[in-house]
TrEMBL record:
Keywords: FAD, Flavoprotein, Oxidoreductase. Residues 48-226 form the FAD-binding PCMH-type domain. InterPro entries: FAD-bd_oxidored_4_C, FAD-bd_PCMH, FAD-bd_PCMH-like_sf, FAD-bd_PCMH_sub2, FAD-linked_Oxase-like_C, FAD-linked_OxidoTrans_Type4, Oxid_FAD_bind_N, Vanillyl_alc_oxidase_C-sub2. Signal peptide: none annotated. One of its GO terms (molecular function) is FAD binding. This is Glycolate oxidase. It comes from Thalassobaculum litoreum DSM 18839. PROSITE patterns: FAD_PCMH. Its cofactor is FAD. It holds the Pfam family FAD-oxidase_C. The lineage of its organism: Bacteria, Pseudomonadati, Pseudomonadota, Alphaproteobacteria, Rhodospirillales.
């Protein structure tokens, strides 16, 4: 994995840049000591690390705007960072860039129960929004496994999902308004508390843009009333293929659960060792199906799901009888990632999406890939929407294992695309999937996406090196012409 070569002219001006940024963000808002910047060298994708040139921690929107304006005028790259939980390297710093941390933007600004909205700064945690409104029986629906730590601004950047997004949608379906700052330092507002707005869907464009277009400084989200009844079923199956077939049958029957998650045997046992959730250790695969709504509706749906599960070979079937038991069912799933960390020195969490009907096929292929690369894999799925999270287990201290894990992961994502799916469901492209983008998009597709990037960031200063496998200058984008074997603009980094 290659990143753009550091700009030596910018590095030569480092002291000057530090002084200028300290004038904008005084006190302890600028970190320039290498040792003190070390905690920012990576995000959740720790396989790749770079110490940033400078870390800036603004406290106000005006400071964010001033920092971006200065960097734009002086040709300095900027990498926005939320809580650093990204699993695709989206917040990987640059050796010649400013890392703009938004952790101090951690206040909820407005709670409006009448309009069912919350307005928060980007550093507020995902779970923090639900915590702020649950006393009135409300909650925020998208719930990534990292919700205790991940920030709502980062959720916007990656269009994050979670276990309840099958029925209630991802981040893009649950935000109503954004305040953001462009690379030129202009403060903009999109949307608000109202349901829809006229004109181009710029908010949709910003959601999932991975910090390449602007820096989000405020988010307005919709909150939902907690359902009258919530119950979960724990379904065990002899094989992952049978569990996958059950998923397809449930959706095919017109049942849309609040959440439907799947774990294979290695993940089941790791989670059970970690939280003692009462999972069937002998099961080849486990489904957690949560149903919500009026009590009579939930009771009816439970019986329908029970029949479908039995028809697909279910060997274990438990229905939660209390809120405590329902939470216990979910505890293992929510803790699956740290649990797997106990059975392997390292693991790489992938993120691809396939059509639900292809679940059995992708599982069969992953078994063959595991044998090919000599590495174990534990599977955790947002099964209802076909979003896969294979955890490839390896030991980075063993020569060659990291390379094999990366190749294994690339093959999984290529298979997702081949089966009619996409490279990412919620983690984003970042650097992890950047070089796989041509598997899914043609050169024409990618050039068109880069034109959008150029419209917002003509100098390419915001989070460069992410998402796009070839770095173009905006002036020559789409005008590439090879004359007598000579490549124009040979000095442009292409990686």
């Amino acid at each position: 994995m290659q990143m753009p070569e550091p700009d030596q002219e910018v590095l030569a001006r480092r002291s000057e840049i530090v002084d200028a940024l300290r004038a904008i963000v005084p006190g302890e808002g600028v970190i320039a000591d290498t040792r003190e910047m070390r905690p920012y060298e990576s995000d959740g994708l720790t396989a790749y690390r770079t110490v940033p040139m400078i870390v800036v921690l603004p406290e106000t929107v005006a400071q964010v705007a001033a920092v971006l304006k200065y960097c734009h005028e002086n040709g300095v790259k900027v990498v926005p960072r939320g809580s650093g939980t990204s699993l695709s390297g989206g917040a990987l710093p640059l050796a010649d860039g400013v890392l703009l941390g938004l952790g101090k933007f951690n206040r909820i600004l407005d709670i409006d129960f009448d309009n069912r909205t919350v307005t928060a700064q980007p550093g507020v945690t995902n779970l923090g929004i639900t915590t702020a409104v649950q006393h009135e029986g409300f909650y925020y629906a998208p719930d990534p496994s990292s919700q205790i730590a991940c920030s709502i601004g980062g959720n916007v950047a990656e269009n994050s999902g979670g276990v309840h997004c099958l029925k209630y949608g991802l981040t893009t379906n649950n935000i109503l308004g954004l305040e953001m700052v462009t690379v030129e330092g202009e403060i903009m507002r999109l949307g608000g508390k109202h349901l829809d707005s006229e004109g181009y869907d710029l908010m949709g464009l910003m959601t999932g843009s991975e910090g390449l277009l602007a820096v989000v400084t405020e988010v307005t989200v919709r909150i939902l009333k907690k359902p009258a009844s919530l119950r979960a079923l724990l379904l065990g199956f002899p094989t992952s293929e049978q569990a996958g077939a059950c998923v397809a049958a449930i959706i095919g029957a017109g049942i849309i659960p609040g959440g439907m998650e799947m774990m294979d045997n290695p993940a089941i046992n790791a989670a059970e060792d970690f939280v003692n959730a009462g999972y069937p250790r002998e099961a080849g695969a486990l489904l957690i199906v949560e149903l919500d709504g009026p009590e009579v509706e939930v009771d009816t749906l439970i019986e329908r799901v029970r029949e479908i599960a039995e028809a697909n070979g279910s060997t274990t079937l438990r229905v939660s009888d209390s809120e405590e038991e329902r939470n216990a069912f979910w505890a293992g799933r929510k803790a699956a990632f740290p649990a797997v960390g106990r059975i392997s020195p390292d693991y790489m969490c992938m993120d691809g999406t396939i059509p639900r009907r292809q679940l059995p096929e992708i599982l069969t292929r992953m078994t063959r890939m595991s044998e090919k690369y000599g590495l174990r894999v534990a599977n955790v799925f947002h099964a209802g929407d076909g979003n896969l999270h294979p955890l490839i287990l390896f030991d980075a201290n063993q020569p060659g294992e990291l390379d094999r894990a990366e190749a294994f992961g690339a093959d999984i994502l290529k298979a997702c695309v081949e089966l009619g799916g996409v490279l990412t469901g919620e983690h984003g492209v970042g650097v992890e999937k950047r070089d796989l983008m041509p598997e899914m998009f043609s050169e024409t597709d990618l050039n068109q996406q880069m034109r959008v990037k150029c419209a917002w960031d003509p100098k390419g200063l915001l989070n460069p090196g992410k998402v796009f496998p070839t770095l173009h200058r905006c002036a020559e984008l789409g005008r590439m012409h090879i004359h007598r074997g000579q490549l124009p603009f040979p000095d442009i980094p292409r990686f």
